[in-house]
Amino acid sequence: xxxxxxxxxxxxxxxxxxxxxxxxxxxxxxxxxxxxxxxxxxxxxxxxxxxxxxxxxxxxxxxxxxxxxxxxxxxxxxxxxxxxxxxxxxxxxxxxxxxxxxxxxxxxxxxxxxxxxxxxxxxxxxxxxxxxxxxxxxxxxxxxxxxxxxxxxxxxxxxxxxxxxxxxxxxxxxxxxxxxxxxxxxxxxxxxxxxxxxxxxxxxxxxxxxxxxxxxxxxxxxxxxxxxxxxx
Length: 232
Known about the structure:
By secondary structure, this protein is mainly α. The chain is 77% helix and 3% strand. It has 10 helices and 2 strands. Strand 1 and strand 2 (70-73) form a beta hairpin. Helix 5 (93-117) crosses helix 7. It is elongated, with a radius of gyration of 23 Å. The termini are far apart. Residues 1-7 have low confidence and may be disordered.
C-alpha cells in the first residue's frame, strides 16, 4: 500500500509539473511535448510514472496523446470538461432559482457588454432573429421559435467578447434548454418575450448599456416566474 501511495504521489507531481510548464508558457496549445525519454530524464521518474502522469492530463483534456506520434497540448474546453459533472446533477424545482440566478447574471452582463461592443452586423443579425421568431409564431411553430430564441440569446453572449461568460452560458445551456422549452410553448408568455426582445435590441442599438442589462435581467426574471407556474 505504501508503494502504491508513493507511485500515485509521483505521477501526480509529474502531472503538476507539466501543467505548471504549460501555465508558464513553455508549451502552448498545439505544441508537441518532448519525447518520453527526454521527459523521463527531466523529471527524474520512471517511464511508467511519466506515462501515468501524461494519462491523467489526457483524461482532464489538457493533453492529447496521439498514438505513434506524440503528446500535444490540447485546447482546454471548460464546457466539455464540465458536461460530465453536470450530467450527474439531479436538478429539482428548488434548483431552478439558483440556475436562473446564474443565467440572469450572465445574460444581463453580456447584454450590457453587447451594447458596448456591438457592430452593425451584430444588430442586423439580432433583427433577423426577431423576424424569424415572429414568423415562427405566425405559423404556430413553437419549436422553430425556441431554436431561434436560443440563437438570439447565444448571439448576445458572444457579442460580449468575454470568453468566461460564453463558457458559463454554454455550460448551463443543456440544463436550461429543457426548461426554456416549457415556457416557449405558452402563447401569452411568448408575446411578452417578443416585446422584451425588441426592447433589448433597441437598448443595444442605442448603446444604452445599463438599460440593456436591466431589460435582460427583467426578461430572465419573468422567465423564471413563468417556469415555476408551469411546474405547479
